[in-house]
């Protein structure tokens, strides 16, 4: 079997118009030492920047700025220390899709928390706040659940039972 | 055999497809084995990111609801210790990356030296963390119902027990990852001592490296969020 034939039989898959050998395999990249030291220096500088930013009193902008610096540091670590820049694109895809799902998780939760109060007010939904409520009274031995005046006056505070009944009465004042 | 692969048009598989002693029988080539292992590692790292994202979201919600309390409570964290730990973890990330590189080029003493340095930095991180935690526990700044800083003369407005719950959960889970990291780093250090790793086979070094960089990555976000609130 000639070499040309062998190559032709092997190159079943093409990537960017070039035959790929061992497409399911891991492809390595050896960075020069200089690159690692440069990234390390950049990370230290950015750490100093994070520190400086926190003392600059930027007000509401400080959190976004701190996050931008952190993302820059994280990108350096991912691209050069974790070799994502030279790695199989599929690993980049796995990583970035994770970030997208984290973004969905954050966005929808924060969105819900921010819009919930208004919706509750619009719909007039009443939530029982267990924190401010008096503890339910201990059930006393039944001595004829009289609906008399005496029983009613005492029952204002302790009328929460039975719990299941949809009672229309207002919550106790806080 | 490996000279056939030197043509510039073709991508070169890791280790140039040379057989090694740790080749599993169910893989066709060493490169395929390395690729499968690395892909599996990335999927694991994805689950790690998702696990931590829940805690980060909890942090953002607490910060959104109690901005003044978070600002007041974070003043009690030791920024110097946090800063030292940041530099320690970044340096350990460098030594880890250099260990992987040493394995790629087959520099045996450098693999062991860099792994040992990484383990040393990991221990340094945990020692600093120990002193931080001890101070917090002594001052009664504990999560939830265990919070009793007022007994020690610290008065923080609002609900600081929530902040310290978030603080201990986030740094605790991260510290647990550092401990696991010390374990797996020791494991590959011992294997490196037996001369298992070289240009044709360094998958464990690389995957432990990816894990260790992720631990660093999470701290990169934890540090400004917890220690440097403004």
Task: Please characterize this protein's 3D structure.
The complex is a heterodimer of chains A (174) and B (230). Chain A is mainly alpha-helical. Among the domains of chain A are: 29-86; 88-132. Chain A has helices at residues 3-10, 33-55, 62-81, 89-123, 149-158, and strands at 13-15, 18-20. In chain A, strands 1-2 form a two-stranded antiparallel ribbon. In chain A, helix 2 (33-55) runs antiparallel to helix 3 (62-81). The longest helix of chain A has 35 residues, at 89-123. Residues 1-9 and 146-171 of chain A have low confidence and may be disordered. Chain B is an all-alpha fold and 230 residues long. Chain B has one domain (46-227): Cytochrome c oxidase, subunit III, four-helix bundle (Four Helix Bundle (Hemerythrin (Met), subunit A)). Chain B has six helices and no strands. The interface between A and B is large, with 58 and 56 residues.
Summarize the structure.
The complex is a heterodimer of chains A (174) and B (230). Chain A is mostly helical. Helix content of chain A is 55%, strand content 3%.
Biggest sheet overview of chain A? 2 strands, antiparallel
Could you say which structural class the secondary elements and strand pairing of chain A correspond to? mainly alpha
What's the N-to-C terminus distance of chain B?
60 Å
Proportion of strand residues of chain B = under 5%
Q: Give the largest interface.
A: A-B, 58 and 56 residues
Labels describing this entry:
heterodimer, A: 174 residues, mainly alpha, B: 230 residues, Four Helix Bundle (Hemerythrin (Met), subunit A), 6 helices, 70% helix, elongated
How do the strands and helices of this protein lay out in sequence?
The complex is a heterodimer of chains A (174) and B (230).
Chain A: H1 3-10, E1 13-15, E2 18-20, H2 33-55, H3 62-81, H4 89-123, H5 149-158
Helix pairs in contact in A: 2-3
Chain B: H1 30-65, H2 67-74, H3 79-105, H4 108-138, H5 160-193, H6 203-227
């Amino acid at each position: 079997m000639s070499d040309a034939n062998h190559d032709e039989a092997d190159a079943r898959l093409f990537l960017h118009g070039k035959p790929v050998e061992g497409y399911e395999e891991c492809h390595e990249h050896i960075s020069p030492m200089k690159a690692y030291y440069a990234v390390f220096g950049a990370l230290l500088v950015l750490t100093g920047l994070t520190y400086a930013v926190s003392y600059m009193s930027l007000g509401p902008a400080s959190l976004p700025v701190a996050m931008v610096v952190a993302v820059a540091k994280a990108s350096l670590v991912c691209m050069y220390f974790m070799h994502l820049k030279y790695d199989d694109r599929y690993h980049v895809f796995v990583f970035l899709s994770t970030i997208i799902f984290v973004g969905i998780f954050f966005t929808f939760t924060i969105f819900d928390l921010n819009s919930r109060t208004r919706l509750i007010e619009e719909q007039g939904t009443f939530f029982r706040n267990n924190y401010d409520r008096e503890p339910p009274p201990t059930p006393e031995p039944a001595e004829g659940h009289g609906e008399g005046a005496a029983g009613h006056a005492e029952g204002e505070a302790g009328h929460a039972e039975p719990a299941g009944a949809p009672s229309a009465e207002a919550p106790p004042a806080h | 055999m490996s000279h056939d692969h030197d043509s510039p048009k073709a991508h070169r598989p890791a280790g140039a497809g040379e057989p090694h002693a740790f080749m599993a029988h169910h893989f066709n080539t060493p490169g395929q084995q390395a690729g499968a292992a690395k892909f599996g590692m990335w999927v694991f790292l994805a689950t790690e990111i998702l696990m931590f994202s829940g805690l980060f979201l909890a942090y953002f919600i607490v910060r959104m609801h109690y901005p003044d309390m978070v600002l007041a409570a974070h003043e009690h964290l030791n920024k110097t210790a946090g800063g030292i730990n940041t530099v320690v973890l970044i340096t350990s990330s460098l030594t880890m990356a250099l260990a992987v590189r040493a394995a790629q080029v087959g520099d045996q003493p450098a693999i062991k030296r860099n792994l040992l340095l990484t383990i040393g930095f990991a221990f340094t991180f945990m020692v600093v963390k120990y002193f931080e935690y001890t101070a917090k526990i002594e001052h009664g700044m504990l999560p939830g119902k265990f919070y009793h800083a007022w007994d020690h003369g610290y008065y923080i407005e609002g609900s600081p027990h929530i902040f310290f719950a978030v603080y201990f959960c986030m740094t605790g889970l991260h510290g647990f990852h550092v401990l696991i990291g010390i374990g797996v780093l020791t494991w590959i250090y011992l294997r490196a001592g037996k001369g298992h790793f070289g240009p044709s086979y360094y998958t464990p070094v690389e995957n432990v490296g990816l894990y260790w960089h992720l631990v660093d990555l999470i701290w990169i976000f934890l540090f400004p969020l917890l220690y440097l609130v403004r």
